[in-house]
Design goal:
This protein has 228 residues and is α/β, with parallel strands linked by helices. 39% of the residues lie in helices and 21% in strands. It is found in: Cytoplasm.
């Protein structure tokens, strides 16, 4: 049973989400203070954290920043609808996904399942054979990526994106295909999460000898992982 920590000071929403997730088979712990999320990350006591951005004592962005210094536990952010600044900030700091409030319990449960699949066992039908793409080695079964012989520190979402590109190394992969294969859902208009996560992966890979990124983009179409 997956253990979820839900951090939100909206008592009515928290109760609604907790009851629904418990019926879905999750163990759910709730709190109104972001410091509980930091403690859980440090102690590795939960499988995933649902974190509201608008918190009274310490906002969700600051909490996420502290969590990522301690752990790569999956984090799903609850954001104000239409607040792109908070969403992008959260993704840049390592959030695995976000759901705008008010959200339906069903949507939240679906997002949790997708994140946990990416952070845990591969989805059914996914090969666990080692993938080699130039200096990159991907181990889907253990969800470990090696770059130039060193382990890459990736979030669950970053690993999934890099795995998709590695499986089609040297070929252009459309954003729609990336979204379906990495996130398990179609890309929606104005959704920038792929671009934000790719930017983070690019930084971790560094630059080629010619000063170019190892992950090339074709404007409005998709991304390509170079292998030489």
């Amino acid at each position: 049973m997956n253990k979820v920590l839900l951090i939100d000071d909206d008592a009515e929403l928290t109760t609604l989400l907790q009851e629904y997730l418990v019926e879905e088979g999750y163990e759910v712990v709730t709190d109104t203070d972001g410091r509980a999320a930091i403690a859980a990350a440090a102690g590795n006591t939960v499988d995933i954290i649902v974190l509201d951005i608008m918190m009274p004592r310490m906002n969700g962005i600051e909490v996420l920043q502290r969590i990522r210094k301690l752990s790569q536990v999956p984090v799903l952010m609850l954001t104000a609808r239409g607040d792109d600044v908070d969403r992008i900030s959260g993704l840049n700091l390592g959030a695995d996904d976000y759901v705008p409030k008010p959200c339906s319990p069903g949507e939240l449960a679906a997002r949790l399942r997708a994140i946990l699949r990416r952070a845990g066992q591969p989805a059914a039908g996914t090969s666990t054979d080692t993938i080699r793409a130039g200096k990159l080695v991907i181990h889907p079964g253990s969800r470990i990526a090696e770059w130039r012989g060193e382990t890459l520190e990736l979030t669950g979402t970053e690993f999934s994106l890099l795995e998709v590109l590695a499986r089609s190394a040297g070929q252009l992969v459309s954003k729609q295909d990336i979204s379906k294969r990495a996130f398990g859902k179609p890309l929606t208009p104005f959704d920038r999460r792929i671009d934000v996560h790719i930017s983070s992966v690019r930084q971790k890979l560094g630059l080629r000898e010619d000063g170019q990124s190892w992950i090339q983009s074709v404007r409005g179409q998709g991304y390509q992982l170079l292998v030489d």
